[in-house]
Amino acid sequence: MNRERLRKDAVSIFDAGVKAADPENAVKRHLGLEDGVLHVNGRRYELQGFDNIYVIGAGKAAAPMARAVEDILGDRITAGIINVKHGYTAALKKIKINEASHPVPDEAGLKGAREIAGLLGKTGERDLVIFLISGGGSALLPLPAEGLTLGDKRELTERMLESGAAIHEMNVLRKHVSQVKGGRLAKLACPSALISLILSDVIGDDLDAIASGPTVPDRSTFGDCVEIIGKYGLRGKLPAGVAGYIERGAKGGEEETPKPGDPAFRRTENVIVGSNVEAARAAKEKASALGYHSLILSTSIGGETSGAARLHAAIAREVVSSGNPVEAPACIISGGETTVTVRGMGTGGRNQEFALAAAIDIEGLENVLVLSGGTDGTDGPTDAAGAMADGGTIRRARELGLDAARHLAENDSYNFFKPLGDLLVTGPTNTNVMDLRVLLVSKSR
Asked: What does pLDDT average to over the chain?
């Protein structure tokens, strides 16, 4: 099997996974209307008991999720507004779309968040609020705590991204410097009935971590924020306003996020409509249909990107040498979300860096290919979803004067793969269920 066939198969397998995470279909699998009764994951809502239905949302998949809700409820919707990443839109009739920046929040996101909070402030006990949450929702719903600015929030996000902190650790801090995260949006919506439809982008589908858990009781504390700041050496690096707010909170001087048992959650229902697991399963089915012996390694791969890449490269070598854990032709699929500790000044993202680190370790294995891509179509601050590498990548790079080790040290994976033509470019997918990695090993010639 030649390199081009491996590339084509890998992209097809990745695309099948992304398609399975389609947000519109995911919502329609869990939401239905029959004879004036809204069915949500087995629960019934008699719509005649509500005066108004409002739809709000935030995230990269919010637009297609909103389109599904419009298809189901139509003119029953009173009004709505969603915040989405620039370019991640859909044609909607009743629900307003506000495009904003991700992963670093901007003024447009702040404006939209204020509009959402203002709408919730008008709701009452006979209203129903449907909240659509997906990956990117945390950055796309920026409403800083009183006394903090968007600049404070933006700088906090940038410092956390550079530190290599895991997404759930970033979200602990985001929750505690926000008016809507960490269960506080549910408090704003109370006493309305609140349904949150959630497309998960976190390992383990932890509800209070997805988009920083705006409608979920928060288990973390200001004390946890202090520990995370210390763990990643961020003392003295965060905005003074943020640092002071967290310090006051740890001493009881600022209100904690709402915890389990808070009456704000009495009429709140949270439903996960899609996740990385569905994407990985669909990718596996596609690989099997293409003739590969397929295996899902895990949908919970986290940690430092380079280390995860070396693990996958080691598995590739094992398949080649012993036929374990599956015989060639083999397809090993993994999901999750790794992190990159930024030490250089280059351009790239965790998926491109994964492919670069793997390329170094699979050098010379001409029958092996690795693809790593973000299901949202965006990897870091680039136009690529990820990249591909095979056993001949390093050799071809040398012929172009590219030094793989230097590019890896500089976190410059984008400029390594671009001249090779090995970037994975999908454009916005309007979904986000973390990353998918496809490891292919063909039979030896």
From this structure: 95
